[in-house]
Amino acid sequence: MRDIAILVFDGFEPLDVFGPAEVFGCIRRIHDTADAPEIRYYSLNGGTVHGAIGTDIVTKALDDAPDKDVLLIPGGPGTRSLVKDAVFLEALRRQLPRFSRILTVCTGSALLAATGTIDGRKATSNKRAFTWVKSVRPEVEWVAHARWVEDGNLTSSSGVSAGTDMALSVVAKAYGDEFARILAAAIEYVWNDDPSDDPFAAL
């Protein structure tokens, strides 16, 4: 499995980041495998990033991320301004082709969509923010009822904790369902392994 590059920004949602990070980081702890991914944290220019609820994290510049890594884009209140930040969006747009796979959590899909690179592709997002997300880029085929959605090398998940379910699905594809269930048990997490089971869509 490729290494994981997590892109953070001021106002990122901590669980969007650290739920999947816990899943991917536990792979080596469960089984010492040569292809267990390393997890690295990036921002556009590097330095300390201030997440929501007082979560600060030290990052490297996104330019430093190795080619072919998996890019994870979280959501959070910071996405509301970034979807209008032409400088940020252009810089991200230029970087995207370097990554082998893209994962989004919550309103991270709105941020990705705002780059104009996933028009016509299927994606989902946080259901409480779904109307706003759709307004950011109507050209995306937004899926209103899904815990997570796969479309080629893009996998997007619904709100916050859905990122952990999505991350376990990525692990299952790479290492098998049994391994993913062992990992979920190790972190005492009840895995919703059905991407169509979206109880929050009704909200």
Automatic annotation (TrEMBL):
<dbReference type="InterPro" id="IPR002818">
    <property type="entry name" value="DJ-1/PfpI"/>
</dbReference>
<dbReference type="Pfam" id="PF01965">
    <property type="entry name" value="DJ-1_PfpI"/>
</dbReference>
<protein>
    <submittedName>
        <fullName>DJ-1/PfpI family protein</fullName>
    </submittedName>
</protein>
<dbReference type="InterPro" id="IPR029062">
    <property type="entry name" value="Class_I_gatase-like"/>
</dbReference>
<feature type="domain" description="DJ-1/PfpI">
    <location>
        <begin position="4"/>
        <end position="172"/>
    </location>
</feature>
<dbReference type="InterPro" id="IPR052158">
    <property type="entry name" value="INH-QAR"/>
</dbReference>
